[in-house]
Amino acid sequence: MTRSILKQSLITTAIATVLVWSTAGATRLAAQSGASSASAGSTSAKTPRTADGHPDFSGVWWRGADVGGRTASGGSITAPAGGRGATPPPTFASLYTPSAAAKAKTLSDKDDPALGCTNTAFGTLNVSLFDVGAVGQIVQTPKFLIMLTETYNSFQIIPIDGRPHRDAIPPSNRGEGVGHWEGDTLVVDKTNFTDTSWIYAEGRVSFHSDAMHVVERYRRVDANTLEIEATVEDPKVLTKPWVVPKQTLVLAPFDQIMELACSNETQSLVEGAAKQNSGKN
Question: What are the extents of the domains in the chain?
C-alpha cells in the first residue's frame, strides 16, 4: 500500500480500500454552493431548536474542510499541532492491556477490516459521525437522531425519546445507540458491537472486543458549532477508559452530503499492505 493513498484525503484513504469518489472535493463544493446553509451567519447566532424545545442538531457537519483538506473557499487547512514537548493525547490502542498490545504487534495494514469496506467502530478522525470520512449529516426528528456518513454510506438511527436498548438484536460494526437528554446535551449510549471492526481505519491497528461501550455527549454551542465528547470503555482489551479528545465541528456551507462509494476489489492493495511493517497503531 503506497503512502500516496494515505495522503490523498483527510479521510485517510490509507485504509487500503479503493474509495471511488463520485466527484472531486472542489467539484462537490461548486455543485452545492447554491445550497448554502446557516453557516454563513454569525457564529453567535442562537442555537436552533425543535418544536419540543430541544436543540436541533440537523445539518451537514465537518471540521472546516472537505476531503483533501479543501475548504469551501478553495484553500486548505492543517491539523492543529501540539506545542514543543507537548504530550499527545492517548489513542485507543495506547491503552491496550499487555496481552492486547502483544496481539496488536501481530497485525498490520493488511489486516485492516476496512480493506473489505467494513465500517469502523468509532471513526478515523475521532468523530463517529464521520466513520472513515470527513463529512456527515444529521437529520433530527422528535423521536430519532439520524446520522448519515458520507463515506461508505453508513448510518446510525438513534432514538432520543428515552427508550432503552433493544433486546435480541444482532451486534453491528457501529453498535446500537440510544439517546437521552440532560438539559441541552444529548447523551448517546452505544453497546452491542461486533468484535470484527477496528476503532480506526487507514491501517492503524485498533481492534476492540464485543464488550465495548461508548458514551457520547453532543452539544450545539450556537447556530454553527457542534461539540462532541466521548468516552470508550472496553474492559477486555483496555487498561482504563479512553477519553476521546473533544471534537468541534462547524456547519458546512452545503446542506446535503454526497455518495462516496467503496469497492472491495482490493487484492493488489492487500498485497501491498502486507509488505508494511506490522504492529502499527
Answer: 3-73+90-273
